Structures are given as C-alpha cells and as structure tokens.
Amino acid sequence: MSDTLREVTLEDLDAIEIGAAILGTGGGGNPYIGKLRCREELRKGRKIPVIPLNELPDDALVVSLGGIGAPVVGVEKIEEGEECLRALRAVEQEVGKKVDALISAEIGGANSMEPMLTAAQAGLPVVDGDGMGRAFPEMQMITWSIYGQRSTPAAMADEKGNIVVFRETPNDKWVEDLARASVVVMGAAAGLAQAPMRGEFVKRAAIPGTVTQAYNLGRAVLDANRDHRDPVQAVIDHEGGRLLMTAKIVDLERHLKGGFAVGHLSLEGYGAFAGDSGKINLQNEFLIFARNEVVEVCVPDLIVVLDADTGHPITTEMLRYGQRIAVLGLPCHALLRTPEALAVVGPAAFGYPEVEFVPMAAKGDAK
Amino acid sequence: MSDTLREVTLEDLDAIEIGAAILGTGGGGNPYIGKLRCREELRKGRKIPVIPLNELPDDALVVSLGGIGAPVVGVEKIEEGEECLRALRAVEQEVGKKVDALISAEIGGANSMEPMLTAAQAGLPVVDGDGMGRAFPEMQMITWSIYGQRSTPAAMADEKGNIVVFRETPNDKWVEDLARASVVVMGAAAGLAQAPMRGEFVKRAAIPGTVTQAYNLGRAVLDANRDHRDPVQAVIDHEGGRLLMTAKIVDLERHLKGGFAVGHLSLEGYGAFAGDSGKINLQNEFLIFARNEVVEVCVPDLIVVLDADTGHPITTEMLRYGQRIAVLGLPCHALLRTPEALAVVGPAAFGYPEVEFVPMAAKGDAK
Questions:
Q1: Which fold would CATH assign to domain B230-363?
Q2: Chain A residues with CB inside 8 Å of B168's CB?
C-alpha cells in the first residue's frame, strides 16, 4: 500500500490495471494494452512521475487525456501508441503554451493508462487524480465540465495521422457529439486531449488521489489472492462499499446504440441472497442496481460486477448468461454528489428521471 | 455581357443566381438564400470586388470557401449568415496570417454566393474562378486537391457557435469524411474554409473566370426570356453545348444515402427525340446520361436539366414524375479532363468503372 504514489514503476502496473478495471464499473475500456505500452516505455528507461494534487503549482498548465471510442473496438483495434501525444501537441498549439502536467480524464478502465503512457513519452508528470473517479460513458460527464472548465479547445488524433481540433462549441455536450461523430469516421478509436486548465482549478475540481487509489485497490486484490483471502471482501474493505448480491445472470439484453453498449441484466440471487431477484441497467457502465424491483444503488455511486470466484472485474462486453457474479456497491466521491454534479451524472442524465439518487454514503457506507 | 466582372453589384445578383444554378447540374444547393444575403450586404453599402485570376499576386493568400451539407437541408435550415466568415477566421488563426482574397470552392449552386457574402462581410475580394467549374458532391473533387494543394488546415463553423478545425489528415478524402460526419452533428449545414493557397497556385489550378461565366450565362437566359427567344438555346449557345433530349420523366428513383441524394430518372423522348429512351444517374448532381442504354455524356462534362418551357434549371430534389424537361450536355473545362482530374471526378470515382469518359469537346463541342 502507498499513501501517495510518487512514481509509477514496472512493479506497479499490474495493480493499477486491476484497480482501474474495478473503478471502470463495467466500462471504460480494457487497460491491458495500455499497460503493455507503459511497460515498454518504462523498460526503455522512461519515467512516469506522479505529482500529488496538493503539490501542483496554481499556474501549472494541465491537460486532460483519454482515449475515445466504443469499448468493444478498443479490444480489437489496437492504437498505434502516440495518439494522445499528438492530441496533446495539438492542444498546446491551440493555447500557444507548453503543458506542465497531464491528468486522466477517467481513472476507470483504459484511460487510467493513457496519460501515464503519454507522460512517459513527453517527459511530463501525471497528476494523482482524474475527472471522473470511475468511468462514465460521455465526455461531458467530467468534473472539469461540472465545475466550470470548458473542454475546448480539445483535439483528437488517430493512428492514421488525422488531427481534428474542437476550437469552440456552445457547450461541452457539443464536444462529445462532434468527437463521437469523428471517432466513428476514424475507425472508432482515437486519443483526445481536452480542457487546458490551471493547476489552481485542477486542485479544486479533480477527484483526488485516484492514481494511488487504483494502485492500492489493485494491490489489495492481488494480496488477497496471494494470501488466499476473499478478493471480493478486499475490494469492499478498501473502498468502504457493500456486497449487494451474489447472483447468477439469468437474462441479458445488450445492444449497440449510438456507439454505446446499452441494455440490462437480470439476476437470480444465491447463497445469502437466495430468493432475491436483481436487475442492473447499463450504458457502457453499470448504472442502476435494483433488488426485487426496488432501486438500491445508482449512478454516480459505483456498481461493480466481479467474478464470484476469482474476484476479477467483469466488463459489460464480457457478460455471459449463467455467469456467477458478485455485485458490489461502492460510494462515489463527494465531488460527484453535489447538485451540479448530479445534474450531469445522476440517474436523470442517463434517462432515468424517476430514479432518486440516495447516496450510499448517506446509508452509512464510507467516504 | 461582361468580359471580366470587376465587382458584383445589386443588378448582377439575379443573373449569377441563374447561371450558378445551371452550372450546379442538379446539385450544389439553391443559391437563392445566399443571393438575398448578398443583396442585404450590398444594400448596407458593402462591396463585392472581383479580382481576375491573372491579376492575383503570386504571394497572395487565398482561401477556398463554401457551405457543406445535404442540399435538401439547405432549403429548410437557413444559415445564420456568418458561418463562412467564422470558418475563414479559424483558418487564418491556423496559418497565423490574414487572407488576401476568397475563392469559391464550387461555382455551381449555393456555393457561388457564399464567398461573395463573406467577401462583403470581411472587406475582401473574390477571385474570378473556382475549384470545380460546376458542382460535385464531395469535397475532394476539387482542382485544389487534384493539382496538389492539401485541403488542410480546414475549418467548419455552424450557426450555433461550433468551430471544428481539420488540422492534419492523411489525404483530402479524410477531410471530406470527417467534415461530413461533423455536419450531420451540426444539423446538416455549415460553412467551410479550406486549402489556404498561394496566388501562384490558384492561377494554375482554378477553373478561370467562372464568376463572370455564371453572370454571363444567367444574363443570356434573362435576355432570351425578355426577348421571347428560346432560353434553352441561349444556354447551349453560351456554353458551346448540345441538346441531348427533350423528354418526359417516366420513372424516378431517389433516396438519401450517406447524406447524398442518390438515384436515377428514366426519360421518354418527345418532339425531335420521340422514340428515344433516356436515363440519368445522379448523386446530388447529374452524373451520367444514356440514350437507349448507351452512355452519351458523363462526368466531368455537365449534364443540365432545364424545364422545357421556362428554361429554369431543375435541381435533383425538384424532379417530379411527368415533368417535361430539356436535357443538355455542356463540355467541362480542360482542367477537369486531365488524367489527374479524371481519377478524381471521372465516372469511375462515382462507382461507374465500366463507363468510359469521352469528352464532349472531342466530339466537336466547344471548349
């Protein structure tokens, strides 16, 4: 365990991969390829320094990085490896300044690795924090936008040499829509750099310490496995969460809609949860968990699905009929629970205006 | 008639509208709204100076302008009016220089008016020429691309305040694809500025004198109508073309495919052409004319459909079953007939590899 990660080394990558995948809440893309690329960079002698949020100078220029695309494609279409670096350079050209530090748009899933990879390539530090504290399906669902920083100028780059700049838009939803349309043309995977921010703002708006959190969470799972302890319990203990259900998947409906994996899964409880039925709605990420048709946990709190035996996180595209899973609820960070945040990442923003968000934290869970 | 238009005045707009619509070969969008906007600017006392191609300084910076979108939408979704101006400013920011003159991407249809409107707004001259000498459905079908000038950096702006910059792409087809995807998000109409060029290149690559040509062609139609002469013959005489058929539309298949109006119309000749059958294939513009199943005229030569009685050009979205039309073939400019040009705007580029382009000019028509 580490209080504050100061540098990401070769030995840390596996733990960050696992922790980031769990925080991906079923989406966010697979961090595996990114991990391999980071490993390659570190083996070349390059470094990934991590700068704690409170040590970031107020006038530092920070850019938010991440890949964009359908998660399904990320597995099949491997990036060339410098997409985010080229997108970063394009944003630097827009603002006419060199960037001082990088930050992950989204710690959950593949975008945990993208800024670390670019950091190694560009010789820059990554900030210990991110803009989501988990994964969300749309770009404007990010604390930069929520707390007043515009995404523009933003830039997208693909492996073929395309560079598209979103210089001005009426609001950040337009950046999402325009970037989404461009990424389909580019072949459904690209690097995106956005929201050039002052350090002072990042300190207020970033979900703090999430690189360290991903590392420690992954470390807890690895240690539990090594010591033959229950990895599911290790996740719950680390995050102050709650086991919602051990269950079998008895129905699964999932289709691609507007570039997103949308659908739901129906669950039949077993063990301590025998007799319970469950349902999880998803849009790339798991959004809402209901027990016996009553909503119990919903976005922005985290719904995590783990393989009941191995404790490995299961992403939405890996769901299978008959799988035995453990469903966990983990409380989200306080920055995602404010009225401004709930307007953007609460259940209504996902098309569930009838669902009221009752924070897990208010029910006595940690955070 | 004018040898070389030196300025577009209020009195010239109607003629340019008609000439440009004829050169639109069924597509290119309706120049009507653009004409009204130009009129408004001229009434405010603003000017639209025209600079002949041979007077353009070699080191002048010229930008190509036009609207982009589905022609059907152009009629229904009226632009705010400064889309092209904002796109122009975005390209100026990209190259770090002020532009000296504007040129139409496409003289056929609505894009005849866009650069004139922006010229009045920005206090710049328009060059007497364009990049197509007619209308074509895709952006890379332009002499700038054909003769070696890249479209990038290009910029798109809509009426809502979105500005997207295409900074780098592997080739100009990517600009077309990315711009097409963006314009769908923007609501299917936007202004596009592209291909910042040196005057020296424009003098070599532009189809020369097409603003004057559109004016004179429209003037010829207006004069024929006024003098009760045949307007169809006036078009043929002015352009050195040929009457292909007077006919009734007996079948019409037209659908939207990838943002384009695609289809064909079947014709039954009458008058001197009684007994002949005809077919015209289209993609926004009329592409191929066949008589009795033998191709007679095809892109890049111009196939123009006029109302048989009034001589008014009929655009693809205005085609109706039972209409009586005059089909004309007009020879394209020599710059569209080179091997480099035919690779991009010949019949194979539109999905007709089996059609051989035999220039009308080679058959004894003018140009």
A1: CV3147-like (2.40.390)
A2: 161-163
DSSP conformational letter for A333 = P
B264 - beta bridge partners?
B253, B281
Q: Is B174–A160 a contact, with Cβ atoms under 8 angstroms apart?
A: yes
Q: Residue A161 is nearest to which of B164, B170, B181, comparing CB atoms?
A: B170
d(CA B366, CA B236): 10
Subunit contact B164:A165, Cβ cutoff 8 A: yes
Domain ranges across chain B: 10-210, 230-363
Please give the structure tokens belonging to residue A226. 């090594």
Mean pLDDT of chain A: 93
Same fold, A10-210 and A230-363: no
Which segment of A24-28, A99-103, A342-346, B213-217 scores lowest on mean pLDDT? A24-28
Query: pLDDT value at position A2?
Result: 78
| Strand extents, DSSP E, chain A | 50-52, 61-69, 101-104, 126-130, 154-157, 163-168, 189-198, 207-208, 242-257, 260-269, 277-283, 285-291, 294-298, 302-307, 324-330
Q: Convert the pLDDT of each residue in B74-126 to its tens digit.
A: 444 556 789 999 999 999 999 999 999 999 999 999 999 999 999 999 999 99
* pLDDT at residue B70, as a whole number: 58
Q: How far apart are CA A133 and CA A138, in angstroms?
A: 14
CATH number of A10-210: 3.40.1610.10
Task: Determine contact, residues B313/B24, Cβ cutoff 8 Å.
Answer: yes
Cα separation, A67 vs B225, in Å, equals: 61
Q: Who among A160, A168, A184 is closest to B162 (CB)?
A: A168
The per-residue DSSP string of B127-191 comes to: EEEESSSS--SSTT-SHHHHTT----SEEEE-TTS-EEEEEE-SSHHHHHHHHHHHHHHHTSEEE
User: Does residue A142 contact residue A34 with C-beta atoms inside 8 Å?
Assistant: no
Verify whether the Cβ–Cβ distance A184 to B184 is below 8 Å.
Answer: no
Do the Cβ atoms of B160 and A181 come within 8 Å?
no
A195-245 residue pLDDT tens: 999 999 999 999 999 999 999 999 999 999 999 999 999 999 999 999 999
- Over the range B74-83, which residues count as b (16 or more CB within 10 Å of their CB) and which as e? bbeeebebbb
A114 vs A111: CA distance, rounded Å: 5
